[in-house]
Design brief:
With 168 residues, this protein is mainly beta. Helix content is 12%, strand content 32%.
Length: 168
């Protein structure tokens, strides 16, 4: 079993059995695991971050109408299926946060977008592994409050990696 397969099995077990799972009790009853894209090594990237010289504070609305404050930290530039794309990396007291929505949103991926927490490597380099992209908890249960993907992180290309849309 690969490291990614183990990670996914642990997550599925957490969702099915843990008291802090975002799933409602009735969802847990028939839960057989998340639906994932196949492992996509082309979307496990080491990317240089272009830090913003003026790292401004921004307020991001959540799925419940509340707000959360983040710092616009920098920008990743890379290619997906031959297309040049850019994503803004945010930060707060909890670390780095990369919300994004792709061209599959609403069909194969969660309409409001998915999340990643890229791992800093050396200097301004990060590991951005889209195979670890996950749905926010509000995708499973409306009582959760989740930051909405900012318009600057809505991609016109598909990201065929990570979690797919949740279907009860």
């Amino acid at each position: 079993m690969s490291q990614l397969d183990e990670f996914r099995a642990d997550k599925d077990d957490f969702f099915a059995n843990h008291p802090q799972s975002p799933l409602k009790p009735e969802q847990k009853q028939g839960f057989k695991g998340m639906d994932y894209f196949e492992d996509n090594p082309e979307l496990k990237l080491e990317i240089e971050l272009e830090k913003f010289p003026d790292q401004e504070q921004v307020v991001i609305q959540t799925s419940t109408g509340q707000t959360q404050t983040y710092t616009r930290y920098g920008k990743f530039k890379f290619t997906v299926e031959g297309e040049a794309v850019e994503l803004t990396l945010y930060s707060n007291e909890n670390g780095f946060f990369l919300p994004f929505a792709d061209s599959l949103a609403g069909e194969e991926t969660y309409p409001a977008g998915r999340y990643l927490e890229p791992d800093p490597l050396a200097a301004d380099s990060f590991l951005v592994d889209f195979n670890l992209a996950y749905n926010p908890y509000c995708a499973y249960n409306e009582m959760w409050s989740c930051p909405l993907t900012p318009s600057e992180n809505r991609l016109k290309v598909p990201i065929r990696a990570g979690e797919k849309i949740y279907k009860n």
